[in-house]
Design brief:
The complex is a heterotrimer of chains A (118), B (101) and C (190). Chain A contains 3 helices and no strands. Chain A has 118 residues and is mainly α. Chain A has one domain: NADH:ubiquinone/plastoquinone oxidoreductase, chain 3 (Methane Monooxygenase Hydroxylase, Chain G, domain 1, Up-down Bundle), CATH 1.20.58. The radius of gyration of chain A is 24 Å and the shape is flat. The model of chain A has no long low-confidence stretch (mean pLDDT 83). Chain B is elongated and about 55 Å long. Helices cover 77% and strands 0% of the residues of chain B. Chain B has a single domain, classed as Orthogonal Bundle (Helix Hairpins). By secondary structure, chain B is mainly α. Chain B contains 3 helices and no strands. The C terminus of chain C is likely disordered. Chain C contains 7 helices and 2 strands. In chain C, a hairpin with a 2-residue loop joins strand 1 and strand 2. The chains are: A mainly alpha (118), B mainly alpha (101), C mainly alpha (190). Chains in contact: A-B, A-C, B-C. Chains B and C meet through helix 1, helix 2 and helix 3 of B and helix 2, helix 3, helix 4, helix 6 and helix 7 of C.
Chain lengths: 118, 101, 190
């Protein structure tokens, strides 16, 4: 029970900070509405198209997939790091095998140009 | 009132069936994949309920593997959607009939 | 009032369960894929809370990290990659639902905090000894999971890397720009 009190406090602070900031902003600011304000911000240039009419480039999908794969890799790395002392060399070797297999995929992505934007 | 494994199993069943209905009824490929994710989550709930009930950690480890497989499934499934969009410019599963003889 | 306090755990479970089912119903019924994705996100977070209640803290973190943080982004990217049709113009501006969104965020945060609190209360009764021990030593849930993962489940762990490898290679093959089946769906620069 005691272990979680910091997390609980952290959660409460994390939730309350943005709320308090929004409240302060709400109280302080002028309440004028203008349709121009609702437009998406594109570096000051007028939006050329409606946001939902445009398609994202397919490369965003590739980036997202690579992110998800390495995200999943992280969830294995984290408990590994926690029990590393007990596992010693054995754990090191098994994680290196795991990483080596994923490295093959990384090198494949690299060679295929999936990491290049142009 | 004490929450037992049964409560979790019933909840898991409801979510799994909703996911199954979604997979069968919906025609939008993206929504079908989302319903599949629902089914994965129902399975995970099941594993966790039994892990707690039997006081055995193996269920939690298996759930991690399920999550990993779900991530791989999402990556490949969405890749299929992209292939379908490139080929036919649609996400409707009814249009995905190139292999029909 | 006494009833409420006594059965707080059960009431909380039923509340979270109801929200989970509501999210699942939303995924299956909502016509707009973006709305369905948001309902799915809500379901993921609720399932994470249920994990905490069943003393699977590490798994709850993984659930939020991988599902809500990774897979959800992937889904939304693909939804945007495919043109979102049938979307009414006013849906694009989130101004009028901002108070609702804030309220929803507050509620989700409060639920998560209560889930952590209840999970720790459940931990106090000592019924879940094996969920946080290695041998006789009491450790955290993450450490216990890690120990089991890297000893008993060693082979599945290595095989999983192959699954991830296949996912990565498959995605690259599907997502390549010069793919042989490039058709009308080719993306444009935003």
């Amino acid at each position: 029970m005691d272990h979680y009190v910091p997390i609980l406090i952290f959660t409460l602070i994390a939730v309350s900070v943005p709320i308090i900031i929004l409240m302060i902003a709400k109280v302080v600011r002028f309440g004028s509405y203008d349709p121009v304000k609702a437009e998406p911000y594109e570096c000051g240039i007028e939006a050329t198209s409606f946001a939902l009419d445009t398609r994202f480039s397919i490369r965003y999908y590739l980036i997202a997939v690579l992110f998800v794969v390495f995200d999943v890799e992280t969830i294995f790395l984290f408990p590994w790091a926690v029990v590393f002392d007990e596992l010693a060399l054995f754990g090191f070797i098994e994680m290196m095998v795991f990483l080596a297999i994923l490295l093959v995929g990384y090198l494949y992505a690299w060679r295929r140009g999936a990491l290049e934007w142009a | 009132m004490i929450i037992t494994a049964t409560h979790y199993l019933v909840l898991s069943l409801i979510i799994f069936c909703l996911g199954l209905v979604g997979v069968m009824v919906r025609r939008n490929f993206i929504t079908v994949l989302m319903s599949l994710e629902l089914m994965f989550n129902a399975v995970n709930l099941n594993l966790i309920a039994f892990s707690y009930r039997l006081d055995d950690l193996a269920g939690q480890v298996l759930a991690i593997f399920v999550i990993t497989v779900a991530a791989a499934e999402a990556a490949i499934g969405l890749g299929l959607i992209i292939a379908l969009v490139r080929l036919k410019d649609t996400v409707s599963l009814d249009e995905a009939d190139v292999m029909r003889s | 009032m006494g009833f409420l306090i006594e059965n707080f755990g059960a009431i909380f479970f039923f509340l979270v369960a109801a929200l989970t089912v509501a999210g699942a119903v939303g995924v299956v019924t909502l016509r707009n894929p973006v709305h369905a994705a948001l309902a799915l996100l809500e379901t993921f977070v609720m399932v994470a809370i249920l994990f905490i209640l069943r003393h699977a803290e590490f798994l709850a973190a993984v659930q939020v990290l991988v599902y809500a943080g990774g897979i959800m982004v992937l889904y939304l990217f693909v939804i945007m990659l495919v043109k979102v049709k049938d979307l009414r113009a006013e849906d694009a501006f989130l101004l009028n639902i901002a108070p609702l969104a804030v309220l929803g965020g507050v509620l989700l945060g409060a639920l998560l905090a209560a889930g952590i609190l209840l999970g720790t209360m459940a931990a106090g009764d000592g019924a879940v000894a094996a969920l946080q021990t290695i041998g006789d030593e009491t450790v955290g849930n993450t450490e216990a999971v890690g120990w089991l993962l890297f000893t008993k489940f060693l082979v599945p762990f290595e095989v999983v890397s192959v699954v991830l490898l296949v996912a990565m290679i498959g995605a690259i093959v599907f997502g390549r720009r010069d793919a042989a089946l490039s058709g009308p769906g080719e993306g444009v620069e935003p």
